[in-house]
Structures are given as C-alpha cells and as structure tokens.
Design a protein that fits this description.
- The protein is α/β, with parallel strands linked by helices.
- Helix content is about 40%, strand content about 15%.
- The strands form three sheets. The chain has a seven-stranded parallel β-sheet, with helices on one face.
- β1 and β2 (about 15) form a beta hairpin.
- α1 (about 35-50) crosses α2 (about 65-75), α1 (about 35-50) runs parallel beside α9 and α3 (about 105-115) runs parallel beside α4.
- The protein is globular, with a radius of gyration of 18 Å.
- The relative contact order is 0.14.
- The mean pLDDT is about 95.
Length: about 290
Amino acid sequence: MVILETFTLGGDLPVRRLGFGTAQLTGPGYWGPRGTRAEAVAVLRRAVERGVTLIDTADNYGPGLAEELVAEALHPYPAGLVVATKGGVVRTSDSAWHVAGRPEQLRAMCEASLRRLRTETIDLYQLHRLDPEVPMADQLGTLDELRREGKIRHIGLDTVTAAQLERALALDVAPLASVQNRFNLLNRSSQDVLEVCEAHGLAFLPWFPLANGSLAGSTAAAELDALAARHGATRGQLALAWLLHRSPVLLPTPGTGSLAHLDENLDAASVRLDADDVARLDALTAAG
C-alpha cells in the first residue's frame, strides 16, 4: 500500500501530512500555560527539526498563548512551514466557549492573530465554529475579504456537518481549502464529511487524532496491543498510521508538550500497514 507523505494544501502549499497541533501546549481546557514557555518552545522547534511543515493552532488556545509560543519558537518562519490558526470563538474561562461570527468580530480576531504570529499573512485561517446567528455567506465573505487583502492565504472550516460543507461550497462565496472535524480510530462520525473533502480535494485535519487518550481504556485495546507488537509500535502510533492510510486528504496534527511523546508521534509516519492490518483496525470502531 503506497502512502502519500505530502498533501498540497489549497493547491499551492505542499505540507507533510503528519503535522503538529498546539492545543496541548496550554493547560486543561486549553486555558493558561502547561509547563514552562521554554519547554513549549523546545517542542515546537523539535517538531520542525523533525520535518513537520504544518503547525495547527488557534487564537483561543490560552487564549492567545499558543499563537505567541509559535511565534516565539519559530519566527522568522522557515521556508515551507505552513502555520494554520483559527478564529470565531471567544473564551472567557476554561469551560466557556462563545461563538462569535459577526464580520467585525472575525476581522478583529484575524488582525489579533496576525500580530501574535508576527506575520503579514496567515497561511490557513479556519472558522472555528459557524455562528448560527450570522448568515454563512457573511462569515465566509468576511474571510474572503481578508484573503483578497492578503491577510489570509487559504480558508477552512472547523466542526461542520457534511450538509453545511456542501452548502458552503455551493455558496461559492470563498474558496475553501480545508475542514477540521473530530475523526479518529474510535470515532468516525465525520466519515461523510471526509467523503466530501475527498470529492473536492480539501484537506481534512482530524482533531483528537489519538482519540483524546481513550485508546488505552477502550475495548479495542487488546487488538491494538496485538497489532502494535507486530509492528514494534505503540497504540498511538497505530492510530496515527491508520489515519495516514485511511485517506490521502487526512492530515493529522497530534499535539503534546513532551519531547519524547512528540518523537513517538512523528515516528508513526514510518509505520506501514498492509491491507489486513487496515481491515483489522477498521473493524475496531464498534468495539471502541
């Protein structure tokens, strides 16, 4: 089975499919710091040293902290590094999320991300949630205005249904490059969204690619352990390898604040699964 190592995001930004997500550089509930800034900076730099070319962050991780850490660690950004961020949600505590999709809010959030990331253009700006109180065309239209002004290179959506994605594509208000939904070995509820992405050549960045730590406690753990032993891999590496084998548009961006765990995650790119392995892992969703 031939696995593509790269994907061309938006038709012009080639990235390695296994990237790095920054949520775990912040504290519980994505609020405040996790560990020291020096530790976070070291992890980010190590990710790039290991060949990561896609960094996924968001303005409300911290809030603001994750974007600041990305800039502190990696600016000036090396050629070929793609930094993706998100806006459209306001955080007021570790458990309070407020959707904010009015045009003036989205514009202000994008401008703030530009400042924190110390860049003139954000490679990929994803709408973190669609605001049900604001017409979709207005939200996408604002992002397209920012794109035409050179502040955004590509636009994506986070946490959408297949119907919402189809509607956004049919509106043709703004060109879309990506979707970011929950999708992992044990949760494939967004399979229909993945199929739309495949049909339209959109990147799909699965969040919680490691099933949010639930692999060990799942009823699938024994089967995972058996397959892991066969490949000399860990459960997490199998979960990431399965995503890479599942679809060429899947771009998992697992995150961690640990250098050792980072290396473990990135080593998943070298795990090669045969058709039987994939079939066995495909069968785990019900058990999981």
